[in-house]
Amino acid sequence: MLERNSETFLGCDAGYEEAWAVLYGAPFDSTTSFRPGARFGPSAMRHESFGLETYSPYQKADLTDIRVFDSGNLELPFGSAESALEEIEKRAEIILSDGKLPILLGGEHLVTLGAVRALVRRYPDLHILHFDAHADLREDYLGVRLSHASVMRRCWELTGGRTGERSIHQFCIRSGDREEFHFAGGHTDLHPFGFDGLEDLTERLAASGVPVYLTVDLDCLDPAVFPGTGTPEAGGVFFPELLNALLAVSSTRVVGADLNELAPMLDASGASTAVACKVLREMLLALSHGRA
């Protein structure tokens, strides 16, 4: 059984045995290609979350009613991406084995691969919903295959690469090299620039009952809303659009999720951290539907 962290995200102080969801942090940003700092995201979100209310007027629901356990941050070896991924995978497997929903706080986006490895073993037919400014479909970045710029390519190898199915559904994508967009055209379900098509997709996924992993890179948000990230991209969505997308995803069979790429020191105003906290609150409440 996991032990509760000394500082928890607002309202996430349920006991482990009674919780339906478990937060775990992966403070890792060793492959960040532009501006580092995402390793400090999970701790900043916990600390700053107390500037929020536990109640969401959007969903008319309260974090204190949904029983979430916060297991704190993993201690990750920064010199080895593979070793860090193994630790993330182990923690996800413990949470899954105990019948709970693992929700990962990054860190850079590569951390998603550790969680997906654990999920795919349990759910071979896993579909991934990917909200991001970047396609993350490079074969490698500067010769390195384990990179935040190639995380969705590695995830595709675990899902669609084995079945031939377009099991990765990408939204808000507005950046990538030519080869990434060419690869997406033949291998993933790409919806550039926003959330067009998400409602129809989630209805189909919900009807089929397939397991879904939700990965949210916060740079899907426009830098006007969320400047505190390593690779900001103009032309993103705004908070109400992301909230509606989370609500749409909640209708599917979500078996795991993550929220990543907050680099709090890159926004001295603290606004980006406040946005990240609010997104996490709404994500937890949305995913609790039918489980709390």
Structure description:
With 292 residues, the protein is an alpha/beta fold. It has helices at 41-48, 81-97, 111-122, 151-158, 160-163, 178-187, 198-208, 239-249, 271-287; strands at 21-26, 55-56, 61-62, 68-73, 101-106, 127-131, 168-173, 189-192, 211-217, 253-260. It has a single domain, classed as Arginase, Chain A. The chain is built from 9 helices and 10 strands. It is globular and about 45 Å long. It starts with 20 loop residues before the first strand and ends in a 5-residue tail after the last helix.
Give a quick set of tags describing it:
292 residues; single chain; alpha/beta; 18% strand; globular; Arginase, Chain A
Terminal CA distance: 20 Å
Name the CATH superfamily classification.
Ureohydrolase domain
- Point out poorly predicted stretches: none
Query: What is the spatial order of strands in the main beta sheet?
Result: 4-1-5-10-9-6-7-8
Elements, N to C (H/E)? EHEEEHEHEHHEHEHEHEH
Count of all domains:
1
* CATH T-level topology: Arginase, Chain A
Please state the CA-atom Rg, rounded to the nearest Å.
17 Å
The largest pleated sheet is described as:
8 strands, parallel
Q: From the helix content, strand content and strand pairing, which structural class follows? A: alpha/beta
Range of strand content? 15-25%
What's the CATH first level?
Answer: Alpha Beta
Shape: globular
